[in-house]
Design goal:
By secondary structure, this protein is an alpha/beta fold. The chain is built from seven helices and five strands, in the order E-H-E-H-H-E-H-H-E-H-E-H. It is 43% helix and 20% strand. Helix 1 packs parallel to helix 7.
Length: 182
């Protein structure tokens, strides 16, 4: 069993990384394998809205014309049993790196070829708010909307906050174990 976690955080020791690591730890305890990929360390461009109508081959072929790490990451999602999208909350929304990735993912998923291997794949979202923690729920709504548009079988999107993260880490580990057993 393979799990891929795409993190929109650049901090491998931060709150978002701790949440992702807890879920992955539970997954591994039940024999699964997986990794956390920090999107800010990858070469990912934003959507160019290639053609005059604002689309491109994403709509006609289900792939993106931009030559960066996007296609490889999509292939890893398609090969995995579980996809996890983890993001720090910025201004009540996704991080810029996760937003850039999901904007392009949503576009390729408008075509059957892009949606193949993604439709009905189990997915989880983790939205980790720092500061006052109030932006987690709105970020979770935004992430849920894009993942459902892509066709994922969305198990849950969890708004978390730095004030209660330590208490929720054991729950995330248990969630990882449960997902590996399901």
């Amino acid at each position: 069993m393979q799990c891929i976690i795409l993190s929109g955080s650049r901090n491998p020791a931060g709150q978002t990384a701790k949440a992702a690591q807890a879920l992955l730890q539970g997954w591994k305890e039940r024999g699964g394998q997986g990794e956390i990929i920090f999107l800010p360390t990858r070469h990912l461009e934003r959507c160019r809205q290639c053609e005059d109508d604002g689309w491109g081959i994403c709509r006609s072929e289900g792939r993106c014309i931009i030559q960066d790490d996007f296609a490889n990451l999509v292939a890893q999602i398609k090969a995995a049993d579980l996809a996890v999208f983890a993001t720090p909350v910025y201004f009540g929304d996704l991080s810029e790196s996760l937003r850039a990735f999901t904007d392009r993912l949503r576009r390729i998923c408008m075509h059957d070829a892009g949606r193949a291997g993604i439709a009905d794949k189990r997915a989880v979202g983790l939205c980790v708010a720092g500061g006052g923690g109030g932006g987690g729920p709105t970020c979770a709504v935004s992430l849920e909307r894009v993942l459902r548009t892509c066709g994922f079988d969305l198990v849950d999107v969890l708004p978390l906050r730095r004030q209660n993260l330590a208490a929720k880490l054991p729950i995330l580990e248990a969630t990882g174990r449960w997902l590996a057993e399901a």
